[in-house]
Amino acid sequence: MKRGIIVILVMSFSFWSCHQKGKKAAAFENVNPSLIENSVADMPVSSAQSVRIAVDLSDEMKVLDVSMFADSIHYIPLETSEQSLIGKVDKLVIRDSLIYVLDRSRNRGIYVFSFEGKFLQKIGNVGQGPGEYAEPTDISIYGNTVYVYDQYTHRISLFDRDGNYLSAKKVPFFSMGFHVFNDSTFVFNTPDADNYHLPALVGYSVLLSDSTWKVRKRGFYRELGKYTAVWIPENFQGQDTLVYYHAPFSENIFTIDVEGNATQRFTLDFGDKALPEKYLEEANRKRFSDESVQSNYVLFPGNFHETSSWFYFAYLKAHVQHYGFYDKHKKRLWLAGGIINDIFPAISFGQVVGAMDDQLYSVVFPDNLLFASAQLDRDELQEQIGVKGIEFLSTLKEEDNPILLISYLKQSGQL
Q1: How far is C-alpha 20 from the chain's CA centre?
Q2: Distance between CA 374 and CA 155 in Å, rounded?
């Protein structure tokens, strides 16, 4: 009986440190605070229509088949060449049948592929000159312009869709993520331990500004020095007209619109397995690590995606990833410790990196597939994935670029 390859995802996260306070402040020593923060207002937050999802771990299945929530899948091996090597997929953006892959720190760059997987171009290069970056920390696409933010130079570089450099803008505050709503509206994810040069913004995690960087709205304040600062990129996701924001390990997920209005969208209720807030305090940093390893609590770092009919999220038990699929129309939840791609068993489900309409995008690195398949003898492997699966694996090399897996999710009435 064919089942498929399971790659167990072990997740880790990093605590943010403000030990570079002096260095960062020096980078903004010529910034005039009155030009940035003199008209800032608090971001209004509404929770009237929040969807509460009760996560009862006793209902968790050992594995969930992809065919339970998807009609079909499509996979795209991304072309491998010396110019297109990807070390990690930190962000995936789909625009007009083009695939933009952000590799933030391993092979620093933005790599563009066709929907057939053909490598087309790299946007920008590592360096200090025009059109270059020390690190492509985040990207956002609006219209025909690709915006690339570099946290080390505090600069946003603009490119056209063909990768030609257009211009650059210096940002007068520290950020780790951003989204472009339009030419005159930007929203930034700012670690709450930074931006001491702007007293009215210190401690706020989300800032909405215009194109001159005058901040109009500030939101999601945490008392300075009380909490351990943790930055997890998946907690800040731009989706055209909305941004999703989730404070690491909290139970609430919010959306932010172009006017800077925040709406509580989902609440994940893990009951007595929810991580108590006290473990997020700086004074309890070591205890937080101990408790998570011992599996006393479930951690929700913030890997989530919403589609037209579904809300997907991943949570951690002893740092091993588990999965949740919530049918928004039927208000039904499926939980599983693993996902098997029973539609094409040779490819594991992988790490989810994006969503659009009712499509879920995940990536799988060939070295993980080849390692997992090597743990089985040929007869066992053939039983698991079939002859066609073995033929597919034989075309892969460990150093190949990742495979993009698109799951076309079922509509609620099809379940």
Answers
A1: 25
A2: 45
